[in-house]
Amino acid sequence: MAKTKQLCAPTKLDRWFRILQIVLFCMPFVYLAYLRVGTGGASLQDEGVLSGNPAMAVTLLAAMLQPYVGWLLMLCQRRLADGRTAYAVVNMTLLLIAELMTMSSVGVVGLGLILFKTVRTYGMGPSAAWRAADKKRLFAECGGSVLVLLLAGLCLFATMRLGGLPL
């Protein structure tokens, strides 16, 4: 009976991964459509809203990160499938922190849900995954997430400097 539950859980988890990947891949297009409709198309021209409103440019940069996060989630899914659970959980934790820094509510909710379901399915939390991961291979396995974390930090810093968040 327990074996059946273990076999059914990853397929449902794969479905959640796929849904979030599709949503994240569509985020830049949704934001560009929002800019085009909300400003009458003036935002994508030289003298548009993006040059006049730097906060929108920072939000556009954060939206452009989302497809890369979706691709990294695909790699996390592959790591789960081939038994590298610790690296997948560390990657998803770093991506969740990055989504918090970019203030993407869709990314935070989606990654939080997937990380929660992964921890429940595989029984390895972020702290246990950190201890189980080989520190010599950590950057090779999690380098993409570190890059997203650095770019998300840049977005957070720019948002704070523009007055979007209190220091």
Largest sheet: none
Strand content: under 5%
Low-confidence runs (pLDDT<50, min 5 residues)? 1-8
Number of helices: 7
Tell me the radius of gyration: 18 Å
Tell me the span between the first and last alpha carbons.
Answer: 53 Å
Based on CA inertia axes, which overall geometry fits? globular
Structural class: mainly alpha
Q: How much is the average pLDDT?
A: 85
Helix percent reads: over 70%
The helix/strand series, from N terminus to C terminus, equals HHHHHHH
Count of beta strands: 0
Describe this structure in words.
The chain has seven helices and no strands. It has 167 residues and is mainly alpha-helical. It is globular, with a radius of gyration of 18 Å. The relative contact order is 0.14.
Explain briefly what this protein structure is.
The protein is mainly alpha-helical. It has seven helices and no strands.
Secondary structure elements and pairings:
Elements: H1 2-39, H2 49-52, H3 54-81, H4 85-102, H5 105-122, H6 126-132, H7 138-161
List keywords for this structure.
7 helices; 0% strand; disordered N terminus
